[in-house]
User: What shape does this take?
Amino acid sequence: MKLEDGASYEEQVFDGLEFRQQKVRSVTFELCKFLSCDFSESEFIDCKFSDCVFKDSNLNTVRLDGTKSSGTEFQDCKVTGVNWTSLNWSSVAFATPFFFDACDLSYCVFAGLQLPELQVTRCKAHDVDFSECDLADADFFETDLTNARFNRTRLERSNFKGAVNYAIDPLDNAIKGATFSVPDVLGLLSPFGINIADD
Assistant: This one.
């Protein structure tokens, strides 16, 4: 199946769609499901995704310039190297734009975005840039945050239960009311360069 520029798809199921290194413009997807699809290195320009689900799909380094997203779910997907700041954020102030579960989000950029209640659960999120984001009430349950960057980030009331390998400076980030698990909560001390004895 080929996606057409300017087309509108509603409640459509795309199963096994091969769309690697392709480009589409001004396409609207509402309540659609994408199962085992390959969108790697593709471009969705000025498109719209509303209440869609991506499952077991490859979106490696996909470009989303000017695209809008609301209520989009990603499950068991590879979503690496995506610059989420290139989306059109003008109309998502009151809706959670996306949810990630059991995905690989490594090398993604979210810097400076307003994403309260963002859900990144059971994910691999290595080298992700969350600098200067509003992530209040976000959920990072059981996510591996190796080398993820939190600089001047709002993390009030966020959930880090079971999350691992994070390094968050409590003097540089707002963490009041956030929940952490032992022993990984010691990652809050890493910016201070202190030694912690086991006994």
Remarks:
- The mean pLDDT is 93.
- The chain has no helices and 14 strands.
- The two ends are 62 Å apart (CA to CA).
